[in-house]
């Protein structure tokens, strides 16, 4: 199972504008850290169940969504399957990911760390 560690880290929620579809409504974004003993694929499937229960639809790639839960990192794992890529393939290009991630784990988004990958 997965749980928030006793010394968990989470960010403030921030409002962002959709960068690919300026007429889309703004959205809320946050990052949390969890500890998980299950495989990453299991976690992905659980997150997708939460999205579905919130009414998430996937009409087309990058469509505006009611809820979007992503796995950015999974420890030091590098995963590349048909359904999951970790680290998240576009996280380094998105301020709405990096700003809150740096808030809870600055060491993961430092220039030195990014340039080493």
Task: Briefly summarize what is shown.
The chain has 117 residues and is an alpha+beta fold.
Biggest sheet, spatial arrangement of strands: 1-4
How far is the N terminus from the C terminus?
Answer: 29 Å
Protein structure class: alpha+beta
Query: Are there runs of 5+ residues with pLDDT below 50, and where?
Result: none
What is the mean predicted local confidence, pLDDT? Answer: 78
Strand content: 5-15%
Number of discrete helical segments: 3
Radius of gyration: 15 Å
Shape: globular
Number of strands: 6
Structural topology:
Elements: E1 2-3, E2 14-16, E3 27-29, E4 35-36, H1 40-53, E5 79-80, E6 85-86, H2 95-109, H3 111-116
Antiparallel strand pairs: 1-4, 2-3, 5-6
In words, what does this structure look like?
With 117 residues, the chain is α+β, with helices and mostly antiparallel strands. It contains three helices and six strands. The chain has a two-stranded antiparallel ribbon. It has a two-stranded antiparallel ribbon with strand order 2-3. It is globular, with a radius of gyration of 15 Å. The model has no long low-confidence stretch (mean pLDDT 78).
Short descriptors:
two-stranded antiparallel sheet; 3 helices; alpha+beta; single chain; 117 residues; two-stranded antiparallel ribbon; 12% strand; 30% helix
């Amino acid at each position: 199972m997965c749980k928030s560690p006793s010394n968990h880290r989470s960010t403030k929620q921030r409002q962002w504008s959709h960068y690919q579809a300026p007429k889309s409504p703004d959205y809320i974004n946050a990052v949390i850290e969890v500890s998980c003993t299950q495989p990453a694929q299991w976690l992905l499937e659980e997150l997708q169940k939460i999205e579905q229960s919130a009414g998430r639809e996937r009409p087309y790639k990058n469509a505006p969504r009611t809820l979007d839960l992503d796995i950015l990192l999974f420890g030091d794992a590098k995963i590349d399957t048909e359904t999951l890529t970790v680290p998240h393939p576009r996280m380094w290009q998105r301020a709405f990911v990096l700003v809150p991630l740096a808030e809870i784990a600055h060491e993961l988004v430092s220039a030195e760390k990014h340039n080493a990958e």
